[in-house]
Amino acid sequence: MKIVCPDGTAEIRELLTPESETKLETLGSFVWFNDRAETSEGYLQRVKDTDGVILNWDMPVEVLKSCQKLQIISFLGADPRKFVDLSVASRMGIAVTNTPHYADQEVATHAMALILCCAKRIVHFNSQLHQGGYEKGDFTSELWDKTLGVVGLGGIGAEVARLAQAFGMRVLCWTLHASPERARKHGVEFVTLEELFQQSDIVTLHVTHIPETEKMITRNLLKSMKRGAIFVNTARAELVDNLALAELLRDGKLAAAGLDVHDEEPIRHDNPFLSIDNAVLTPHVAANTARAQNNILKIAVDNLVAFFSGHPQNIVNKV
């Protein structure tokens, strides 16, 4: 049996623990590439005779269709739908797995960091001081007794709610799976999406991008936010009408936005948020910690071991 990572990096490879290495060795040969093939033909040469793949980024559909021996793709991430054609994989009988909850705490912490940067204008003041200025300007925003709206109450959203409560915030939440029991467990108030946007001082997104959530954060929802509110997105850019968000930031309706995800990544030079001073941007690094990457690799390897031992786990497609 052969396992291949066709599109890894040296940095991620170094985080593979001896325990995971041993597990892979029990399956057979293991090959790791520290880059992505420049062509589909080159990519296919790496994976055409493999039984299992650890996928760091994406697999071109033309490559996938040629992998007649492949049985499983173990994706390094929570949502492989943008990176693997699940319908093609299902037709070919190839299982696709994910790595749920590998970075809940890290992403939640990053969301709170963006909230704090926006509310306390950290980036602005740091830049000003480095340029020789020392103007305090208008008051910054406090978090105590403010209302945070959490869109989505999975592992990350629940952790954001917990962190926000430690700052003394009231937490509203929208989810498809609201219940009195969940409200009590997490100390949140469930409301409609419209109510959440209207009542919150800060809104943070923590839902998965699927066809049903595409552009779910509409222009009208964004316009309904309080003047001076803050918007944070560490989930997916595709959830949001980002042109409307940029306009509201420029017009001063919103005080700031903290964005870790972007319509095109790497971010394009003409991205509108690059020219907006009250947009705090990071390059999709919310989960970029050694602990999270150790977790993601461990789960991905365990997915392979479980699959080949006849006890598959974390499969996201129909096979």
CATH top level of the largest domain is Alpha Beta
Strand order of the largest sheet: 8-7-6-9-10-11-12
| Total number of distinct structural domains | 2
Please summarize the sheet with the most strands.
Answer: 7 strands, parallel
Structural class: alpha/beta
- In the CATH hierarchy, the third-tier topology of the largest domain is known as Rossmann fold
The backbone outline, from C-alpha atoms, is globular
CATH homologous superfamily annotation of the largest domain: NAD(P)-binding Rossmann-like Domain
Query: Stretches where pLDDT falls below 50 for ≥5 residues?
Result: none
Task: Kindly report the average pLDDT value.
Answer: 96
Describe the structure.
This protein is of the alpha/beta class. Helices cover 37% and strands 15% of the residues. The protein folds into two domains: 2-102 and 289-308, NAD(P)-binding Rossmann-like Domain (Rossmann fold, 3-Layer(aba) Sandwich); 104-281, 3-Layer(aba) Sandwich (Rossmann fold). Strand 6, helix 8 and strand 7 (170-174) form a beta-alpha-beta unit. The longest helix is centred in the last third of the chain and has 19 residues, at 290-308. The two termini are 20 Å apart. The model has no long low-confidence stretch (mean pLDDT 96).
